[in-house]
From TrEMBL:
InterPro entries: Iontro_rcpt_C, Solute-binding_3/MltF_N. GO terms for molecular function: ligand-gated monoatomic ion channel activity. Residues 31-258 form the Ionotropic glutamate receptor C-terminal domain. Residues 1-21 form the signal peptide. This is L-cystine-binding protein TcyA. SMART domains: PBPb, PBPe.
Length: 263
């Protein structure tokens, strides 16, 4: 099966089918501040042709806003500040391809999953020194890029290398874009990302990057909220409703099949 179609099917399967339009809450037009990083195509990113922020998550939030009657205001923040800022109540919701993890639930509330993806290995287009996680780990001269505290970081540590979070073979960067730039310039040899972003950046690289090896596991994405936020339930109701009426399937088709990065 086409990997995008598989992802789309997984996204549709994770939401319950019991919520219908008549049951959606009306939040009275209240202002909701949504934070993101805009570095994660095709979920959220800056369109190089227009300079506008676009993506799957923008379209999903716009649809949710209409269904539960909220007024969305967008803010931008770095990934490393995002979960602490949501936890402190600085923003109402974050969308950033955020993996649902139990340790993060101690700080924030998650929506129901809206996408399921797989972790993939991104390398230079002409890379021929290794072909999978085992052969990368076996060569001590090879370096990996990662953002601290992210799923790619932990998968690199525990699934690719030796379980040492201080391993000097992992070079830390503030953003996913900086990791990719280091990969392009040869400062590192590997960057991990989920299949959503990996397929997007490779497609836009004009052969400069490629994906190798088998998937390194699956992850569910969710929006995050301050603990106890009533917004989570309303968003979940809208997501379930969007699943029932085919809106999520339409978003998946638009962003994972029809949209071509760089075109």
């Amino acid at each position: 099966m086409n990997p995008y179609l598989a992802l789309a099917a997984a996204a549709s399967a994770v939401l319950a089918t019991s919520v219908f339009a008549a049951e959606l809450p009306d939040l009275g037009g209240r202002e909701v501040v949504v934070v993101t990083e805009n570095t994660y195509p095709p979920l959220q990113f800056i369109d190089p042709a227009t300079g506008q922020a676009i993506g799957w998550e923008y379209d999903a939030i716009a649809e949710i806003a209409e269904r539960i009657n909220i007024t969305v205001v967008y803010e931008n923040a770095s990934w490393d500040a995002m979960i602490p800022a949501i936890s402190a109540g600085q923003y109402d919701l974050a969308m950033n391809g955020i993996t649902i993890r139990e340790d993060r639930r101690e700080m924030v509330d998650f929506s129901e999953p809206y996408l399921t993806s797989e972790m993939r290995m991104i390398v230079a287009g002409d890379e021929n020194r290794f072909e999978d996680a085992a052969s990368f780990a076996a060569d001590p001269d090879l370096l990996a890029a990662a953002q601290p505290g992210t799923t790619p970081f932990y998968v690199t540590v525990y699934d690719v290398l030796d379980g040492d979070e201080g391993n000097p073979r992992i070079k830390l960067f503030e953003t996913f874009g900086a990791s990719l730039q280091a990969l392009r310039t040869g400062d590192v040899d590997l960057a991990l990302s989920d299949s959503t972003a990996a397929n997007g950046v490779v497609a836009a690289s004009d052969g400069a990057l490629k994906i190798i090896g088998d998937p390194l596991g699956t992850e569910d994405f969710g929006f995050i909220f301050p603990k106890g936020s009533d917004l989570a339930g309303a968003v979940n109701a809208a997501l379930a409703n969007m699943r029932v009426d085919g809106t999520l399937d339409a978003l998946n088709k638009r962003w994972f099949l029809d949209y071509k990065m760089g075109q």
